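Sample entry follows:

_____
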Amino acid sequence: MHTPIATTQTATPGNGPLAVIRRILLRKLWLPKAVYEALPYIYILAGTGALIAALYLPGWTWILPYIILLGLVCLHIGLGLVTLRLRFRSYRSGPDRTN
């Protein structure tokens, strides 16, 4: 068997800079209700705006695929959120649901 090597520094896993960054990134984020409700529509507007902007960019051919991809991704996320919320809300308020 291998013998463990004695180190002079003791690393504490909960106090390093990576642990601080991890705690910040994994913290739950609670948005105000108005922002939460408007978020899918903001995504849809951003996606539509990016696609329209791609139509009117003269001479920026190298950036067009990225703008189109961004627009399609934003539209997909926005429409997906609207669909998920509508399904969940119709499921919760169904006729067989008793509260």
User: Anything to note?
Assistant: The radius of gyration is 24 Å. The CA atoms of residues 46 and 83 lie 18 Å apart. The mean pLDDT is 85.
